[in-house]
Design goal:
With about 260 residues, this protein is of the alpha/beta class. The chain has one domain: TIM Barrel (Alpha-Beta Barrel). Helices cover about 45% and strands about 15% of the residues. The protein has twelve helices and eight strands. It has an eight-stranded parallel sheet with strand order 7-6-5-4-3-2-1-8. Helix 2 links the parallel strand 2 and strand 3. The radius of gyration is 17 Å and the shape is globular. Bound molecules: 1,3-dihydroxyacetonephosphate (13P).
Length: about 260
Amino acid sequence: MRTIVAGNWKMNTDRVSAAALIDALVKESASFGAEVEVIIAPPFPFLGMAVEKCAGTTIRVAAQNCHEAEKGAYTGEVSATMLRSIGVQACIAGHSERRQYFSESDARIGEKVAALLALGLTPIFCCGEKKEERESGRHFDVVTEQMKGALGRFSNAELERVIIAYEPVWAIGTGLTASNEQAQEMHAHIRALLHTHGASVADHVPILYGGSCNPSNAEGLFAQTDVNGGLIGGASLVAEHFLELVRIASDSKASRP
Ligand code: 13P
């Protein structure tokens, strides 16, 4: 199973700080072990620069969102076709901030995943429950619905090209991380859902944890059986922290049977 550390920069950085952050990662990239894939998702205006700066390294560049249509009268939107044309290789779909602030439904997120898969881009599909959903014990059902609603229509071959990120909404940007046990039990639940499509899907799809993941808690999280790395927000904006997370993921992968 692949191990992945992905940085979601959200709506942060400017041209100068984005360039500095990418340069700092590129400088260290030769030391990244082959056992960990590193992905960065800068804001749209800096994607071209990121692709250019990361060329010749193992760092892959992702977008944070895309529109599901190929092109057309959708002012302000960016298509997967455009992303591919500049060398972007992956794209986050269905982040909880898109669900919350831009009313993205599971069906719509499924359309985005379909558009990405059709073009050979890697979708990083996000799911996760809100605080009140966990408190009322509905977290497994919520994640099941999100998975089925967005990913239910895809073939096994398509599903095998997806990366899943479990991001409990109550843990995002709050400093409240899921415990190792909470992360593992939900990741195991997601793995079991994938297994209903066949062992090969369950064996191929990495499930990343996201939500206040940082160098002080990543070791325990990344060591969990069904946690295959992280989707990192705040800590991905500080090069040393992100690089430390890559190292922790490498070590955790190396110590697995
Ligand atoms: P934080 O790491 O800032 O909590 O964000 C997680 C996230 O939303 C990554 O997509």
